[in-house]
Amino acid sequence: RPMLLYVGRVAHEKNIGFLLDMVAEVRKRVPDVLLVICGEGPAESSLRQQCARLALDANVTFVGYLDRATTLLD
Fold first, then answer.
1. How distant is the alpha carbon of residue 14 from its chain centre?
2. What does the longest C-alpha to C-alpha distance in the chain come to?
3. For all residues of the chain together, what is the average pLDDT?
C-alpha cells in the first residue's frame, strides 16, 4: 500500500489540512493511498473533521504522540 508520512506537531501552521486535500486528489489515481500522521497538537480535532468531510477515514491514520527516545522505524 503506498504510504505518505507526516511526523511532527499537529498544529494549524504546519498546513496539514493541505496534505489532506492532496490525499483526496491522489486517491483518485491511487485509491489505497495512506497518509500516516504521527504527532499530536491543537489542530488534530479539526483535521479529523476535515478527514470525515473528505471521506478519507480509510486513507488517513492518526498515530498520536511518539516518544522522542524511541526510533521511528526499526
1. 12
2. 37
3. 93
